Amino acid sequence: MKIKSIRNGFANNSSSAHSIVFLGNHKAKSESDGSDYGWDYFTLADEESKKKYLLMTLLHNNFVDFIPHTALTEKVGWINPFDSEQVYSKYDLTRTEFEKSKYGARVEYGAEIIKKIEVDYLIEEYKDIFSKEFIENNMKEGGYIDHQSVIYLPKNTNGTINNKFAKELFSVLINKNFAILGGNDNGGDNHPKKEYSTSSEDESIKAALKVLDFMYSNVICVYDEENDDFILQTTDNGNKIRVSFNSDLKTTKSSIPELIDLKITDNCSYGCTFCYQSSTKEGKHANFENIKKAILMLSNSRTMEIAIGGGEPTTHPDLLAILKEIKTRNMLACFTTKNFKLHERPDFEEILKTANSIAFSCNSVSEIQNVDEIMDAARNIGLYPGSRDCAQFYIQMIPELMSDKMFSESLEFINQEMYDTPVTLLGYKDFGFGEKYKPKNRFKTSEWIDNIKYHSKENSIKFGIDSVLVSKWEKELIEKGVDPMALVGSEGKFSCYLDAVTMKVHKSSFSKEPGIQLTGEENDIKKEFATF
């Protein structure tokens, strides 16, 4: 298994635990109490033991609490497997019996029907991993797995378990020399067999599993067929990795537009003289119906994340409806703004609950202080940026528009007053109004990298940088210890730009090429994306 790229954060622009270790030359002996994966320490190293655990974790993912988004929906397209004509017709239930079965395990007869559905599905879908006899015997025998000993499997964008990823992951864990270590960690002690984790290969599999390991994390998974890669992204914090079970080749171009920069308006009254979009207060808003068509195309393209921009997106009268439309299609919705009065909007609370992240464009300490006030306003209504029910706030800066002193003071303020607020650094773009404006502070040395390295290490500020800054400073960033897998310096390789005002697709938001006109009849934009 190979990890090809890593990204932390969104783009805007307890009781028990388990770990999976690569044994190297070690030979471990399985030590477990049957199919009980709870408080007692257990070691699973042989094929049979690992298969039992993986079957249990699969059942927990797909069927725990009988949530609507189960693997069953992928099979027959059900919205709710216990509220469909297909259920009682397939299993020859009367309407009364079907009504009983809706209550799941609370009704004995309903529980039997549910188990029958599960067994039928698993036998057909996972026949390459588990034999029919193995599934039937273990489903009959039953077992217990603690909620923190589960690998939380990623989902497709339609909310169903990504079975292809699960099957390839299971094959690796079963067939290679991995051991699964689990048990109670409340006392703070390591598993007795923790010394097995000695090989460097252990780190790659653990890094991939880390995205899935957070107890309540919802992970989206998209398969890139042309590169044989899986792209995993959490909806909670935006962290993303690209992994492959079979290919060691570096992926230089995705076949899927993973991230789209979506322009919804050219209207802006802030009058920034360096605006690379050349937006003004006379600028036009994109038609809402065109925006909906664009979002549908992106959903069909299996895009995972949409970063809304402008102009000033908060001037668009349908901003909240646009955010909701994106979320309805199971994509991540983010936007960038310079509106420091966002908390005065009547829909402020709904915006915070709907967006995944909001980036505030700041070029001074005073502007960052304005964002701090918006965060206070959110807390006053019971919302905490970055929590499960509230958008993560980002500070977005163009350091080349700031003096070295202002840049340093800004980071100090964020560290002292805005703990755990991520920072995104953008490169200056010689485009639009920016072609004539001459920034005062164009970096001449790499001291700025030392500055962010210090705050990242000593003060735990999370930094992201855009492709423009990467393209200018990639060599120096790598020399100073930045992981190359976290750096993408080319436009149009993993993301692109869709201008909904003109309905054109471009390589980037600052591309000087004419762009590709969309007619509104396309099913997706993968064909256009492939040309970049």
Number of strands: 19
Radius of gyration: 25 Å
Summed up, the domain count is 2
The overall pLDDT average reads: 80
Helical fraction: 25-40%
User: Beta-strand percentage?
Assistant: 15-25%
- Main beta sheet: strand number and arrangement? 10 strands, mixed
Examine the coordinates and then state which fold CATH places here, giving the name of the CATH topology of the largest domain: TIM Barrel
Strand adjacency order, main sheet: 16-15-14-13-12-11-10-17-18-19
**Could you say which structural class the secondary elements and strand pairing correspond to?**
alpha/beta
**Count of separate DSSP helical elements:** 16
Walk me through the structure.
The protein is built from 16 helices and 19 strands. The protein is of the alpha/beta class and about 525 residues long. The protein folds into two domains: about 1-245, no CATH class; about 260-530, Alpha-Beta Barrel (TIM Barrel). The strands form four sheets. The protein has a ten-stranded mixed sheet with strand order 16-15-14-13-12-11-10-17-18-19. It has a four-stranded antiparallel sheet with strand order 1-9-8-7, covered by helices on one side. Helix 13 packs parallel to helix 14. The longest helix has 18 residues, at about 110-125.
Short description:
The protein is an alpha/beta fold and 532 residues long.
What's the structural blueprint in terms of helices and strands?
Layout: E1 2-7, E2 16-22, E3 36-37, E4 42-44, H1 47-63, H2 72-76, H3 85-90, H4 95-101, H5 108-125, H6 132-141, E5 144-145, H7 163-175, E6 178-184, H8 201-213, E7 219-224, E8 229-234, E9 240-244, E10 259-263, H9 288-300, E11 305-309, H10 319-328, E12 332-337, H11 348-354, E13 357-361, H12 365-380, E14 392-397, H13 404-417, E15 423-425, H14 447-458, E16 463-465, H15 467-479, E17 495-499, E18 504-506, E19 516-517, H16 526-530
Parallel strand pairs: 3-5, 10-11, 10-17, 11-12, 12-13, 13-14, 14-15, 15-16
Antiparallel strand pairs: 1-9, 2-6, 4-6, 7-8, 8-9, 17-18, 18-19
